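Repro:
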Amino acid sequence: EGHMVLREIDVVLKPGQTLGVVGPIGSGKSTFVKALMRLIDIDSGSVFLGGKDITELKLDSLRSHFGYVSQENVLFSRSLADNVAFGKPGASRDEVARALKQASLNYDDGTLPSGIETVVGERGITLSGGQKQRTAIARALLIEPPVLVLDDSLSSVDSDTEEAILEAVRRERREKTTIIVAHRMTAVAHAD
C-alpha cells in the first residue's frame, strides 16, 4: 500500500549458511521472508539472489529457488505420499519416505491406518497439527530447493521432534541455504 514495512535489514547469505530470524509476533519476520520470494511487492534494488535484483526475475524462476513452509499448511484429500510429492509429482515412494523420515514423521507407527497411503482428508483433517507441519516440511525437503524457508513451521512439534528435524536439515542441506523463522530460540541455536 506504499508504506515502509521493513527497514535497515542487511543480510548476506552464502550457499550452505543458515539464517535464524527470531522476534515477537508482528515484528516482521514473515514479511521479511515473503519479500525474498516476492510474495509481497518490494522496491527494486532491495533484494538480490545470486547478484540479480529479484524484481527483474520472472516470478516462476525466482520462486523455483525456494522451498517455503509457512505457518498455514495446504494439504489435500489425497494420500500422505501424494501430499508430500505435490511439488515433485514423479517422486518415488522411496524418495517420499526419505523426506518423511527427515521431517520426523513416522507414518507406520499405527497412527495412520494405511501408512504412507493413508488419505489425510481435506486440509489434513485426520492429522495432528504437528503431523501437518511435518508433512509440509517433507514436501519442501523432497524438492531439494537451493533455499529452504521454514516460517514458524516447527511451532506444533515438541522440542525433541524439533531437534530431530533441524538435525536432518543440517545434515542433508550442507551446501544449501536455510532460513528458519521462529519464536523459540532453540530452533535457531545452530544458525550461522
